[in-house]
Amino acid sequence: MTELARTRGRGAARWVRRGFVAPTVLVTVILGLYPLVFIVGASVTRSSLGKPFQEFVGLEQIVAAATDTSVLGALLRGVVYALIVAAASTFLGTVTALALWRSALSGSASRVVLLLPLALPPVVVGVLWRLIFTPNGGLIDAVRRVVAPGSDPIAFLSDPVLAIVGIAVADIWEWAPLVTILVFAALLGIDREIMEAAALDGAHGLRLLRGIAVPAVAGTIAAAFVIRLVLALKIFDLVDVMTKGGPGDASSVPAWLVWKAAIEQFDVGRGAAITLLLALVVTIITLPPILIARRSHG
After folding, report:
1. Domains, the chain
2. H-type helices in 102-204, by residue range?
3. Please, what are the averages of pLDDT over each run of 10 residues along the chain (298 residues)?
4. Which residue spans traverse the membrane (predicted)?
């Protein structure tokens, strides 16, 4: 076979591979591009639910959203909330995975129990934790009456500080098991020979976990943190069910403001402008951990 024939054969094979991949790429581009174009178009026009793209206004709505104290407060609150919740979920999930890996409780039953919070819809999780935080008759109130009888009830979801804390607790409870499952699966993939060699060298207990196990799954832990961070940045369900963004705007987050502007106030243009600001913030916040996760995997 001549060199020309081999070159033509390789070229034909490349086009065949491209043909198989093309439908997937096309669908991905369409599904990703259309919402982006719509959001950008709505943000620079007067748009409502019934009549989008009515009048071109340029950057007016974006500038208004970027200078609105309620929007800036929600963005800052959302970033701080996401970082704390992602860090707590990753830490608790990793510790739980390590405990399961080194104990006799790592059977299928324990993994099923861990998956239960993930199996519940976020709305159900919100209702469940709202009942737990109910100041009269909730689980926490029942514990309070036993531990400190005669004390005043604690209205978690009505307190400007405790409301966002209550949402964070529910959020961590729901999604920390995801980190546990991811890290636990990575731990199961560690070569047994490496563990046995480390044990022969005197690595046991915490020394084994710190020196062998955790570095071996560092990339998975970093990736789990990124996933958890993105989920926390776009939280809406728990806020809507548990506090409605209140009291006042103490628990309002960007996704809640987008919904409120676009659905409650029918101002799709303002909602799109806030969405663009949120997308910019998400990109800035998630870029460093993504780079760290890639470096850890490398």
Report:
1. 68-297 (1.10.3720.10)
2. 108-119, 122-132, 139-147, 162-188, 192-200
3. 54 66 75 83 87 87 92 93 95 88 63 79 92 87 83 85 93 93 85 63 61 78 91 92 89 91 88 92 86 69
4. 20-44, 79-100, 112-132, 161-190, 211-236, 272-293
